[in-house]
Amino acid sequence: MKQVLIAATELAQALEKDGAPQVFDCRARLGDLDAGRRLWEAGHVPGSLHLDLDRDLAAEPGAGGRHPLPSADDFAATLRRLGVTPQRPVVVLDDMGGQLAAARAWWMLAIWAGHPDVRVLDGGLKAWQEAGGELVLGQEPLPEPSQWQPAFDDGARIAADEVFSGRELKVDARSEERFRGEAEPIDPVAGHIPGAVCRPSATNLADTGRFKAPEALEAELPRAEAIVAYCGSGVTACHNILAYAIAGRTLPRLYAGSWSEWVRDPSRPVARSGRGNA
């Protein structure tokens, strides 16, 4: 099975060797477009570059939701600008156990763009520091641009119309309160897609902030012949997809527009109440 996680000690060793991985810091804060870069500038893994959720990993918010995927051309241009090539391994990290927004970066690089070796730092920046890893301040030089032209797999994603008419199990990564429609702090309508089940992304993590063991995830994750992962805006849904990868299960397709796109069309049905766990 392809490795999708890397431990902090393993990353530290890899960074000392020839062919060291390219590291991207994907920290972000919803509602503050510049927070991620400020956090990176205030202290980051040596040599790591900031990969911005709102500018690099998403297009402008609008009809496609709060974090719609960028076009394939735009994301390919971002990867070339950052010097990404399929020959060099990539590690992505954040400070929320991969939820914001390392898992989104992993999905976009590994699943959508087809990079053969992308791993998420298990436990994120906290694990790096606990392992004795240093943080450095300020800027990092950009590498030479690459010429990589990814072969994007659009079959890994699903559009709203397909979600509406399809029979796949919908797995919602938001909290149970948001799923049930008891609270909605971000989007204008509360509730969930009818027929969905709730698998909050935080439940993929142990108390340490690292991912649960593969066998635990395999036992817990919802089962169906075909699954669609969604959340509020297509970010934490990728955390659930990553959990399926760790468990060795078939990967769900990503509904990138997620709830923030779904509720823009008043003709789409909305369900409320019900725990919805599988």
**Amino-to-carboxy terminus distance:** 25 Å
Tally of separate helices: 10
Report the order of strands and helices: EHEHEHEHEHHEHEHEHEH
Low-confidence stretches: none
Which band does the percent of strand residues land in?
Answer: 5-15%
Map the helices and strands.
Layout: E1 5-6, H1 8-15, E2 22-25, H2 35-42, E3 49-50, H3 72-81, E4 90-93, H4 102-112, E5 118-121, H5 124-130, H6 160-165, E6 169-172, H7 176-180, E7 197-198, H8 214-220, E8 227-230, H9 237-247, E9 253-254, H10 258-262
Which features does this protein show?
single chain; 278 residues; alpha/beta; four-stranded parallel beta sheet; 9 strands; 10% strand
Short structural description:
With 278 residues, the chain is of the alpha/beta class. The protein has helices at residues 8-15, 35-42, 72-81, 102-112, 124-130, 160-165, 176-180, 214-220, 237-247, 258-262, and strands spanning 5-6, 22-25, 49-50, 90-93, 118-121, 169-172, 197-198, 227-230, 253-254.
